[in-house]
Structure formats: structure tokens, C-alpha cells
Amino acid sequence: xxxxxxxxxxxxxxxxxxxxxxxxxxxxxxxxxxxxxxxxxxxxxxxxxxxxxxxxxxxxxxxxxxxxxxxxxxxxxxxxxxxxxxxxxxxxx
Length: 93
Prior knowledge:
Blueprint: H1 4-8, E1 11-12, H2 15-19, E2 28-31, E3 36-41, E4 54-56, E5 64-70, H3 78-86
Parallel strand pairs: 1-2
Antiparallel strand pairs: 2-3, 3-5, 4-5
């Protein structure tokens, strides 16, 4: 069971804070500045960080925070990326 103290650890005040944070696969964190919930992905090298719905992480390498709810919470997985590519929006590196 998750307690209130643990929930506080998943909230970040600024974009810089969440980008410097480490995470674990499928962990959900919230950024107050962007008003967005992000899901941590350890194998996210296919996604180019754009400081909105796809963020770099403090772990570096292939890791990403993917927006899943809120202002930039439009990421729904591979199907969404394919749709964006068809619309001419390039989020792949």
C-alpha cells in the first residue's frame, strides 16, 4: 500500500526537477509546472525528448518520461506515435 509520504515523492515542482529525477519502469510522477503526469520508460530511446510530452530523465541513456495525463498527457503508446507520424508530427529521433 502506498502512503502519503510516498505519493509526495512522486510530485515534482518544476520541469527541471522531474528531468533530473530517476525512476523505475511504469512509475507515474506528476510535474506541477507542466500540469502533467508522466510515466517512466527505461527503454525509450525511440522517443526524442521535447520538454513537453516526452522528457529526458536523470538516469540518462535510453530513459524517458512520457506524458500520460494533463496538459501534455497525449502519449498513448506506439499507436499514437504512428498516428502523429502520419499527420507529419515527428517525435522519433
